[in-house]
Amino acid sequence: MLYYLSGFSDGGDFFNLFRYITFRAGGAFFTALFLSFLFGQPLIKWLKRKQKKGQPIRDDGPENHILQKAGTPTMGGVLILGTLMLSTLVWARWDIPYVWIILFVTVGFGFVGFTDDYMKVTRQTHAGFSSKARLGIGFAIALIASVWAAWVHPDDLTNMLAFPVFKDALWNMGFLFFPFAMIVIVGAANAVNLTDGLDGLAIMPVMIASGALGVIAYAVGRVDYSQYLDVHYVPGTGEILIFTSALIGGGLGFLWYNAPPAAVFMGDTGSLSLGGALGAIAVCTKHEIVLAIIGGLFVVEALSVIIQVLYFKQTGKRVFLMAPIHHHFEKLGWAESQIVIRFWIISLILALVGLATLKVR
Question: What is the reported pTM?
Answer without folding.
Answer: 0.94
